[in-house]
Amino acid sequence: MIQQRANFDWMLKELADGVPGVHQIVVLSADGLRIARYGGDPDAADRVAAACAGLQSLAGAVATEIPHSDGKMRMVIIEMDGAYFYMMAAGPNAYLAVLSDVTAEAGLMSNRMRDLVVRIGAHLTSPPRRNGQTV
């Protein structure tokens, strides 16, 4: 898991402050457990993390059907009425998800997310678990 989550919070805040319209940021493990969050309700962050686990699995399955793809999900963007959802691979078994309103510009968001992942990618790693225990 992430070492010293408190030190991680300011980096998530920096992402939120750097892109207008961000409502919530969630860092999650591949199996849908919330590792860290910024903004929004903790219960909502847990629901987003759980939903993201299914979405990353679906995106990976679709990627395997694309010729010349390595089958790995790098980023998913979903546009909804009045909102955007972004999810990016952030390290082995870890993902970064952002919920925003329509004022968030997709290019800026993806660049800022990528910068964050590069800066702290080693800390955005969740070890695999078996039967609820880290292996």
From TrEMBL:
Residue ranges annotated for the Roadblock/LAMTOR2 domain, each copy included: 9-100
Record's protein name: Roadblock/LAMTOR2 domain-containing protein
Signal peptide (from-to): none
Pfam families in alphabetical order: Robl_LC7
